[in-house]
Design a protein that fits this description.
mainly alpha, 2 domains, two-stranded antiparallel sheet, 2 strands
C-alpha cells in the first residue's frame, strides 16, 4: 500500500481545529513558498534526468486554490511520494511527521514542503548527484500559482516511482470520502448514510472518474457556499480529459477528502471515519462505480441544507 500514511494523515487531521476563513500567506511566507517550490523543481528535474524517467507535462486540472489546508494536503502528498521514492531507491523510510495542531496555516504547508524536498536531496546525495540545487532548463514553476505548481510536482514525482499511483489508490481515497460523508449524514435521521452501489459499468477511463469526482467537488463547493465557507475555485472547461492519468484523478480525490475533513472539523465532529484498507487491484470502472455512492451522499447533504442554514452540531452526532 503506497499511500496509507496519507489516508491516516487525513483522518488524524479530523481531530484538529480550522478556521472558516483562509489564512492567506503573508508576503514573506509566500516568497519562501515560491522559492522552495522552484528549488524543489530544479532538484527533481536533475533527479529525473539521472534516473532516465519521463518528464511530466504541465497540466492544469481546472482547480485554483490558496486555502492553506489544501496547499498543505498537496505537500503531504509530496512528502508521502518522496518517502516512497526513498524506499524504492534506498530501502529507507522516514519517521512520519506530527500532524499540525490547531488551524492549518501557510507555514505548515511550507514546513511539509521543505521536509519533502529534503527527501529528494537525501536521495541525490546517496546517488552522488553532486549538482544539487543547480539550474536546469524549463522548470516552468514560476508561471504557475502555488497550488498548481504543487500539483505538477506531484505529477512528476509519480512518474519517478516504480509503483505509480494506481486506480486502486484512487478507489481507497474515494472510500475514505464516503466514510466522511456517512458521518455527516448521520446528523439527519432520514438520510441514507451509505446509498446502494449502482450497477457496474465496464470500459471506463481515468477521464470518466475525473468527471464524476469533479461533479462531487462541485457539490461540495455548493455546500460550502451555503454555509458561508471559503472554498476553492473550479473551472474544468479547458481540461484535456484524454491526458488524465490515475495520478491526476488521485489529486482530485484527495481534494475531496480535504474538504470533507475540514467540514467535519468545522461542525465539531470529533470521531474520524474508519481508515479504509488497501482494496487490492481495482480498475477505473470500479472507482467510477464507487464515486456514484459519494455523489449520492453529497446530493443528500445539499437537500438537507436550506439556503443560509448552518449545520449546527448535534448532541447525537458521532
Amino acid at each position: 500500500m503506497v499511500f496509507g500514511l496519507l489516508v491516516a494523515g487525513f483522518i488524524a487531521l479530523a481531530h484538529g481545529a480550522e478556521t472558516s476563513r483562509p489564512l492567506l500567506p503573508d508576503a514573506e511566507t509566500d516568497a519562501m513558498l515560491a522559492a522552495e517550490i522552484n528549488a524543489f523543481s530544479r532538484d527533481l528535474e536533475r533527479l529525473r534526468r539521472f534516473m532516465g524517467a519521463p518528464r511530466a507535462n504541465d497540466l492544469d486540472i481546472g482547480i485554483h486554490d490558496l486555502m492553506p489546508r489544501d496547499l498543505y494536503f498537496q505537500t503531504l502528498t509530496l512528502w508521502e511520494q518522496t518517502d516512497r521514492l526513498s524506499f524504492e531507491i534506498l530501502r529507507t523510510r522516514a519517521k512520519p511527521l506530527p500532524t499540525p495542531t490547531g488551524a492549518i496555516g501557510p507555514q505548515d504547508a511550507l514546513r511539509r514542503l521543505q521536509d519533502a524536498h529534503e527527501h529528494v536531496r537525501h536521495i541525490m546525495r546517496q546517488l552522488q548527484i553532486t549538482d544539487i540545487g543547480g539550474s536546469v532548463e524549463g522548470d516552468g514553476m514560476a508561471t504557475l500559482d502555488r497550488f498548481n505548481a504543487l500539483l505538477n510536482l506531484n505529477r512528476q514525482l509519480n512518474l519517478l516511482l516504480e509503483r505509480h499511483i494506481s486506480p486502486s489508490d484512487v478507489y481507497q481515497q474515494v472510500t475514505l470520502a464516503i466514510g466522511y460523508s456517512a458521518r455527516l449524514l448521520a446528523r439527519y435521521p432520514d438520510a441514507i448514510r451509505i446509498p446502494e452501489e449502482p450497477p457496474f459499468e465496464p470500459d471506463k477511463l481515468p477521464r470518466d472518474v475525473y468527471v464524476r469526482l469533479s461533479e462531487c467537488l462541485q457539490g461540495i463547493v455548493r455546500i460550502f457556499d451555503r454555509l458561508g465557507l471559503a472554498v476553492l475555485k473550479i473551472d474544468t472547461r479547458q481540461i484535456d480529459l484524454d491526458r488524465l492519468q490515475p495520478g491526476d484523478v488521485y489529486l482530485i480525490a484527495t481534494l475531496i477528502v480535504s474538504q470533507l475533513n475540514f467540514l467535519h472539523t468545522h461542525l465539531g465532529i470529533t470521531q474520524p471515519p474508519p481508515q479504509p484498507i488497501y482494496p487490492g487491484l481495482k480498475f477505473p470502472a470500479h472507482t467510477y462505480q464507487r464515486a456514484a455512492i459519494l455523489q449520492a451522499q453529497l446530493n443528500q447533504l445539499e437537500r438537507f441544507l436550506t439556503p443560509g442554514q448552518a449545520m449546527a452540531p448535534s448532541p447525537a452526532s458521532p
